[in-house]
Design goal:
By secondary structure, this protein is of the alpha/beta class. The protein has one domain: Rossmann fold (3-Layer(aba) Sandwich), CATH 3.40.50. It has helices at 2-8, 89-95, 136-150, 164-175, 195-209, 224-237, 241-247, 251-265, 271-279, 315-320, 349-358, and strands at 31-41, 47-58, 72-76, 108-112, 158-162, 183-186, 297-302, 325-330. The protein has an 8-stranded mixed β-sheet with strand order 1-2-4-3-5-6-7-8, with helices on both faces. The radius of gyration is 19 Å and the shape is globular.
Length: 362
């Protein structure tokens, strides 16, 4: 059981700190860099004189006769994650190798860290609670600036995203409909963050703020009690009921699994960063513009996703509004990973193959 737990740390929960990820077999093929956007203006009106966007790439860009990149694929991470999560074996081993769907001898794969995440600019860099209050529109714009101004990419062959990255995909497709050729969003809903989804986010943020050690964001040491409460909520919401029952079938096993997960997660958190990450979804709502999305889309959710439960009845009607969309609902088994199914490519790999094929241009 310990081996299975080690392999799934970070993948079963909503938020996957980089320290919890397994070593990548593709690490030697990765190039990393930072792109700086000067005088970045946020939707709130706040500004940063220098916004850093960290990124990783695999493969090389291929340009046509006009010099435009034709093989770029961008993959966007979830809340609290980073582009590094797409180097984990359950994702990379299934997709990047020779003959696989995103074979890096054919595709130029771009893995950015969103604002507030990974090695990109974030509150814990020094501004703390004075950091601009970014939202998903800001994060998408920073991604666009990285592509166009930094990497000289003005067209994506494919846009993929998990969880928050899934939601970014819907923002991308509505704001920049001619930029993306095909899209595969996984583990989200294209509606306002409300109901239980906003409830648990708000509860996690309030847990941190209620801790006197938070000091309005100006703490000298992490507010341990408040942060612990927030992380407990994240762990529960990222649960995979059937899988967890299989690996922790007794009270003793369940408590040991909880201890393992908490100890792997909590030391990698910063309270201000987490508050900002959770609150960035506050004004997300692409529901009124779904008809604008005309590119081929394969949207994948899973039945054991506690954050986006199919019982809400939101996904199927929304998918019908996508002109060229296909909705896939993965049935829960002891092998699926709840919300984290999005990063286990074996469950939707064939759907990706089919999307690439049906979005080919003559």
């Amino acid at each position: 059981m310990k081996t299975w737990i080690a392999a799934t740390l970070g993948a079963l929960c909503l938020l996957a700190p980089a320290a919890a990820l397994a070593a990548s077999p593709f690490e030697q093929a990765v190039s990393e860099g930072d792109f700086t956007v000067p005088n970045f203006t946020f939707k709130s009106g706040e500004t940063l004189p220098s916004l850093r966007v960290h990124y990783r790439t695999l493969g090389k860009p291929v340009r046509d006769a006009q010099g435009r990149v034709t093989n770029a694929v961008m993959v966007l991470h979830g809340t609290g994650g980073s582009g590094a999560q797409f180097l984990s074996p359950q994702f990379a081993d299934e997709l990047y190798g020779p003959g696989q769907p995103l074979d890096i001898t054919r595709y130029y794969v771009i893995l950015p860290d969103g604002i507030g995440h990974g090695r990109s600019s974030k509150p814990s860099n020094g501004l703390r609670a004075k950091f601009p209050h970014y939202d998903y529109d800001d994060m998408v714009e920073a991604q666009r600036r990285l592509l166009v101004d930094g990497l000289k990419v003005d067209r994506l062959r494919l846009l993929m995203g998990t969880s928050m990255g899934c939601m970014h995909g819907f923002v991308w497709a509505e704001k920049h409909p001619d930029f993306v050729q095909a899209m595969m969003p996984t583990a989200c809903l294209p509606v306002e963050i409300a109901g239980v989804n906003r409830f648990w986010r708000k509860a996690a943020m309030e847990s941190i703020k209620a801790d006197p050690a938070w000091k309005g964001g100006d703490y000298t040491a992490q507010p341990a009690l408040g942060l612990r409460g927030a992380v407990n909520l994240l762990l529960v919401m990222g649960a995979a009921p059937q899988a967890w029952q299989a690996i922790a079938p007794t009270r003793e096993a369940a408590e040991a699994y909880y201890k393992t997960r908490l100890e792997a997660d909590l030391p990698n958190r910063d309270a201000n960063d987490l508050i900002y990450q959770l609150d960035a979804s506050r004004n997300y709502d692409p529901s009124n513009g779904l008809e604008k999305i005309t590119i081929p889309v394969t949207w994948v959710n899973s039945t054991d996703d506690l954050i986006n439960p199919p019982e809400l009845g939101i996904a199927e009607p929304a998918a019908k509004r996508l002109k060229n969309g296909r909705f896939v609902l993965i049935k829960a088994t002891p092998e699926t990973r709840g919300h984290g199914t999005h990063t286990w490519a074996k469950f939707w790999k064939q759907d990706l193959v089919e999307l690439i094929a049906r979005s080919e241009r003559p």
